[in-house]
Amino acid sequence: METNPFREDLVSRLSPQPCTIVIFGATGDLTHRKLVPALYNIAADGDLPPGVRVVGFARRDKSDEVFRAELENANRKLSRQGHHDELWANFSRSIRYHRSEFQDLEGYHSLAKLLKDFDAQNGGTCNRLFYLASAPEFFDDILLHLKESALNEAAGDGWSRVVVEKPFGTDLPTAQHLNSVVNLTFEESDTYRIDHYLGKETAQNIMVLRFANAIFEPLWNNRHIDHVQITCAENLGMTGGRGGYYDKSGALRDMVQNHLLQLLSLVAMEQPTDLSADGVRDEKVKVLRSLRRWSDPAEVASNVVRAQYTAGAVDGQRAAAYREEDRVNPESMTESYVALRILIDNWRWSGVPFYVRMGKQLPKKATEISVHFKEPPPVLFNVMPVTARKNVLVIRIQPEEGISLRMLSKIPGPALRMEPVKMDFHYKTSFGKASPEAYERLLLDAMAGDATLFARRDEVETAWKFIDDIEHAWHQSDEPPPMAEYPAGSWGPKEADDLLQQDNRVWRRI
Ligand code: BG6
User: Does residue 221 sit in the same domain as residue 269?
Assistant: First the structure.
């Protein structure tokens, strides 16, 4: 049988190359909690190319030793595979701290000198990965200074790439502005916009499930699927001073614009022509372009529910109301929960709603996609009572990563009675090991030059168009739709249940 030549290409391209990773905003949470533990775990797996160095670029004054000790502390607590002193000692030798203001051009010139020294020590390899992990208000400064100091230009036969963390803008105009600065500084092909949900193993498995198996794709359309649900539940509120950022953002911008619309695109897209970055992203962006947009607040109100948590209890602990949280405006009109009925206007999905919900302070942390199939024709078994008739395919993104299929089965015994049963696949039991963290995969891909799991410019901007219409109805119209409420520790507001009930459907119990 002939194989697709692109695939062989991709497999060989997937090896990460030695480089220097410069992290802007290196004293922040992301570096400590995610980036450095991810690099350490890549090293622990033996996958970090020799010669990779890390330079932390930030404003606070500190020595290399102090910086390394702080990172070590964090790694001890957070590393997926535990912390081993000897391995850490080897790995951390490659970490340096570079103090500079983000606006100070001199700091970039001295960075350039440092990188040149590394290149010389590395036998002339000049690959650079600039990672923007600072507060987003500094992104412009950093990018423009990288350009002014010519650090954006590939040196020798090396490459120069940029990874941009979220939030990627706060609406379409700010995202377009950031995109124009990014594109002024780096080629689009050297730009890696992070959406860490795309790095999750289970999200990557959506394409494999759909296109490497013969049995799902023929059913994957409006003839056989009744509706799809995407739920992202979190059992935390505004911990660690997050209220300040969150209150300006809200659930819709914080998680739907990026993570949940990305998951939706993977579920809804057509099969790509090949597995190249653009092959996949071309198909995802078509889905985003087909999302039905709402032009007036009444349409938004009938398709989108927003809500805030009131005081309650989560995991047996008293939880304050959203408006009482640290750094949250006591009169805030920012949603900590959102539920949407999304329609995709294309041939495959016409008439199939995608119900998407995201909430903080819900009873547990869980993200899943459930595909609810239509009932079989009402003959033969339709007169028999049964609790749930529809086949449901559940893709558990996290935790307990896996996939299950609900179907009806005969209950053993002389009587003909039936009951829903589950066929269940768990990553852990099937593969005997925990999945790598999303950031591990994404860092490796950026070092390898594979942008498949990163958002392209048009994806980000198209997603913002959809979100902006809703934000506009909420914040700029004369008759903004109401803000519903739910007690912390519950599964969200009654209004979100009503949204499905109007269509004779219910949210899946998680
Ligand atoms: C971030 C959001 O992008 O994703 C957070 O800003 C959210 O509000 C987080 O909690 C969730 O990520 P994960 O991987 O823990 O599901």
Answer: yes
pTM listed for this prediction: 0.94
Q: What is the CATH number of the domain that holds 204?
A: 3.30.360.10
108 and 76 assigned to the same domain: yes
- Domain shared by 68 and 159, yes or no: yes
> Does residue 368's CB lie within 6 angstroms of at least one atom of ligand 1?
no
233-264: pLDDT as tens digits:
999 999 878 899 999 999 999 999 999 999 99
pLDDT for res 337: 98
Domain boundary (179, 194, 209) is at 194
State if residue 254 touches ligand 1 by the CB under 6 angstroms criterion.
Answer: yes
Q: One of 98, 145, 259, 372 is an active-site residue; which one? A: 259
The answer, yes or no, to whether residue 329 has pLDDT greater than 90, is: yes
Tell me the three state secondary structure of residue 188.
helix
Residue nearest to atom 8 of ligand 1 (CA): 254
CA 304–ligand 1 middle distance (angstroms): 21
Residue type (1 letter), 503: D
127 and 59 in a common domain: yes
Among 168, 234, 369, 440, the mutation site with the greatest number of ligand 1 atoms within 8 A of its Cβ is 234
User: Is residue 259 annotated as part of the catalytic site, yes or no?
Assistant: yes
Same domain, 139 and 80: yes
When divided into structural domains, the chain yields a total of 2
Asked if 304 contacts 479 with a C-beta cutoff of 8 angstroms, the reply is no
Cα separation, 447 vs 54, whole angstroms: 13
The residue whose C-alpha atom lies closest to atom 13 belonging to ligand 1 is 197
Residue of 150, 132, 129 whose CA lies nearest to 142: 132
Q: Which residues contact 173 (CB under 8 A, 6 or more apart)?
A: none
Greater confidence, 12 or 257?
257
